[in-house]
Amino acid sequence: MKIILLSIYCSIIGLNIVNIKESNVYLNSKSIESSFSLINDTKDKVSIHTGTGFVSLNKGSKTSIGCNIGKEVRWANEGKKGDVIFKIESEHCGKTIKLSEFLK
């Protein structure tokens, strides 16, 4: 009888320890948008490489770019990558960015 009571007691204590451990687990996550918009607010038509593909932007047009942090957005000329315009940062995600901000 003592063994049965001891087993029940240990089971209850064991379950409580598991519940305590689970309740103290915190997930440190940050919601990051999956893309951002780049608007061509310059006077010219431009071609860029978004880090994943080539895009041609008319004056006043915009494109959606995946938020691949660390990827480089570059000028493009005849299907070839050119100079770096900017690197994608987490601050860009979910926003609309003007191309002219990087031309200063």
Note down, in words, how this protein is organized.
The chain has 104 residues and is α+β, with helices and mostly antiparallel strands. The protein has a domain at 35-102. The protein has one helix at residues 2-23; strands at 35-39, 46-49, 54-57, 62-66, 72-77, 80-87, 96-98. It has a four-stranded antiparallel β-sheet with strand order 3-2-5-6, with no helix packed on it. Strands 4-1-7 form a three-stranded mixed β-sheet, with no helix packed on it. Strand 5 (72-77) and strand 6 form a beta hairpin.
Feature tags:
104 residues; 34% strand; 4-stranded antiparallel sheet; alpha+beta; 3-stranded mixed sheet; 7 strands; rod-shaped
Biggest beta sheet attributes: 4 strands, antiparallel
Overall mean pLDDT stands at 84
Number of extended strands: 7
Determine the structural class based on helices, strands and strand pairing: alpha+beta
Distance between the termini: 83 Å
Which strands sit side by side, in order, in the main sheet?
3-2-5-6
Question: Tally the helices: what do you get?
Answer: 1
Strand content: 25-35%
Radius of gyration: 27 Å
Q: Please tell me what the overall shape is.
A: rod-shaped
Order of helices and strands: HEEEEEEE
Topology:
Blueprint: H1 2-23, E1 35-39, E2 46-49, E3 54-57, E4 62-66, E5 72-77, E6 80-87, E7 96-98
